[in-house]
Amino acid sequence: MKKLIRVTVNDVRYEVAVKPNQTLVDMIRYDLGLTGTKNGCGEGDCGACTVILDGTPVNSCLVLAMQADGRTITTIEGVEGEKGLHPLQKAFIEKGAVQCGFCTPGMVLSAKSVLDENPAPSEEEIREGISGNLCRCTGYLQIIDAVKSVGK
Amino acid sequence: MSLPEFDFHAPGSVDEACRMLAEYGPKAKIFAGGTDLMLDMRRRRILPENVISIPGIEELKTLDLSSGMLKIGSCVTIARIVKSKEVAGKWGALCAGGKALGSCLVRNLATVGGNIASARPAADLPPPLMVYGASLVLKKTSAERVVSIDHFFTGTGATVMAPDEILTEIRLSEPPPHSGAGYLNLGIRNACDINILNVASYVALDGPGGAIKDARIVMGCVAPTHVRVLSAENLLLGEKPSEALFERAGEAAMNAATPRGSAYSRASAEYKKDMVKELTVRTLGMALREALGPAS
Ligand SMILES: Cc1cc2nc3c(=O)[nH]c(=O)nc-3n(C[C@H](O)[C@H](O)[C@H](O)COP(=O)(O)OP(=O)(O)OC[C@H]3O[C@@H](n4cnc5c(N)ncnc54)[C@H](O)[C@@H]3O)c2cc1C
Ligand code: FES
Ligand code: FES
Question: What is the percent of chain A with per-residue pLDDT over 90, rounded to a whole number?
């Protein structure tokens, strides 16, 4: 049976009726229409579905929508500020860290979490922080360059 | 693949969760981090009628060191274990097990309790927990019991836990002076893979530079459950640690291992056996270095 839950996504409050077997990624994409979050493998392997849940980056394909009741979420649509793209997003473009773009939303959110925790991460910490996000295109080096250029 | 249909419940306390388990019977399933259960449900290996979500229960999220003992609430995430300086300081092999598990995203959801309760022989935490002699607190509406992790696993995916029981806490006593432990896992890549083999070893010395007075060696992926290698442990007791002794213990572990080849990892049974020896020798070396302390 559907149940009404309350979530705050990118500073906007929503009331959504969700089914018990609905995943958080599906709720975000289909009920909220925020399609920046991607659904790739659906099994926790690829990280395309990464969102920040109460300050922690997680695979939203492994979370049930009902578990998000009362919680706060940031998706890629919430990363941009009033002054336009977030410095990380700009760096991704400048360093050629975006090719097909499918991994990019998740990659940016994981990288943002690394920088939020430590504004000057080592390369090792950056690699570790994006270890749950697969990219089939770039070979990762441009992504690491982009994150490094914003850190420091 | 979409998820099967079920009813969802989010109890606010352990007591309420226990009551739900008792009421809904064996068709109810605990959902902790969901990182195992989601896959099992998608692949229709587990089809619960009722899903009982427990990561919101505060009393299951405490990490307590106040009593000289480490008490880990079952819903403490692997990420918290990895980041805890206290755990890294005294239970380093457990921290190593946590670091080997999944990716940082998975570790933010996955719980210690889930890694134990799912009873997969390739899981990363059981070997270190077993060498540290962990005990597990199991609760149901009418009772609570404490079982040694040595007697918890009964087969792949099977444990002594009854369907109406919840694993609430994992307890580790503080390792004695002049003891140490090591954990190594062998996989294909660094993040997000399934172990081919994993071994944890522990030694306690009879004073600095003394003989071995206690030893534990546990291996995963070589049998339906994690197994202690008593033959290798016994061979170490009362002996002065040396490379030759650890080689012999490694050989004993190799002889005790009965792995099957794995199509997924393309690791043959012969390869796994050879690696059992290698990982046993290496983890014993790590344990000894820790036991001898930073001065060595
Ligand atoms: C991409 C990916 C990579 C992974 N890599 C690894 C790895 O490298 N090493 C590894 O060991 N594991 C790995 N895993 C598996 C998984 O993340 C771990 O086993 C994790 O610790 C499971 O915990 P959980 O909280 O998510 O369990 P859940 O999925 O919530 O539960 C697992 C099972 O245990 C039961 N359960 C959970 N908690 C309790 C409790 N308190 N009381 C009673 N029953 C309970 C559930 O009913 C369920 O049957 C990986 C998973 C994914 C998706
Ligand atoms: S879609 Fe969630 S990890 Fe791949
Ligand atoms: S840019 Fe295509 S997957 Fe990363």
Answer: 96
Quote the ligand 3 centre to A107 CA distance (angstroms).
Answer: 9
pLDDT average, residue stretch A110-127: 96
Position B269 scores a pLDDT of 87
pTM > 0.90: yes
Query: Domains plus CATH for chain B?
Result: 7-52 (3.30.43.10), 61-173 (3.30.465.10), 179-291 (3.30.390.50)
Considering CB atoms only, which of B3, B53, B108 is closest to A21?
B3
Q: Is A120 on the interface with B (CB under 8 A)?
A: no
Task: Answer yes or no: do A20 and B8 touch at CB < 8 A.
Answer: yes
Q: What residues in A contact B192, CB-CB < 8 Å?
A: 44-45, 131-132
Mean pLDDT of B46-69: 95
| Nearest one of B14, B104, B96, B128 to B61, comparing CA atoms | B14
Task: Establish whether this prediction's ipTM goes over 0.90.
Answer: yes
Model confidence pLDDT, tens digit, residues A48-80: 999 999 999 999 999 999 999 999 999 999 999
Closest partner CB to B8 (pick from A57, A59, A66):
A66
CATH architecture of A87-150: Orthogonal Bundle (1.10)
